[in-house]
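so i finally got all the pieces together for this one. its two components total, 226 residues if u count the protein bits. some of the lines might not be protein, just check the labels. i wanna see the whole assembly predicted at once instead of chain by chain like last time, that was a mess tbh
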Amino acid sequence: GQQVMQIPQYQHVQEGEDFTTYCNSSTTLSNIQWYKQRPGGHPVFLIQLVKSGEVKKQKRLTFQFGEAKKNSSLHITATQTTDVGTYFCAGPRYGGATNKLIFGTGTLLAVQP
Amino acid sequence: DAGVIQSPRHEVTEMGQEVTLRCKPISGHNSLFWYRQTMMRGLELLIYFNNNVPIDDSGMPEDRFSAKMPNASFSTLKIQPSEPRDSAVYFCASSRLAVYEQYFGPGTRLTVT
């Protein structure tokens, strides 16, 4: 079945350092979404990328969708303590007839002030 | 607008008891998803509905789990009988059809002793 892996599983950074998480799917995706889950909270939608090679920015966050639409990355510049949480990528299988998302394994980000 | 509503927020029950989790999706959303989250298995899709019809229940662990959506504004996930390994956080999410962005509820933390 379709699998979506993320690396690293865990990252600890000092406040102000940059952070990147990578997402790799075993199959081509129609689009890729990113969610953030704060400790004790629920996943919250951040962004969706649709086009091959697409890059989007949200303030200090930069999201990229790979050319083959099988991988993606999230880069945070100058982390802050408010960035703490688990970041998930998710995507529907390309050509799939459903709106079912497969969530990645997640990357837990810890930021030390 | 109110977000996705789930009840109860916390449930502690003894092994063998029946557990019913409830979800009210966002008004106007016609897709509803039930997820389970554990440290070991991450975020797993259990079942989802489009227009109140179950589309994919391949993630339902076994016959002890059942889900219904009698109308567009209400869904239940039932576990009977419950077992300690069912302990997890159960999330309900909703979205518009053909729009992949999902909105998650606050979750129900289930503990089975």
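The two ends of chain B are 37 Å apart (CA to CA).
Residues 33 and 48 of chain B are 4 Å apart (CA to CA).
anyway lmk what u think
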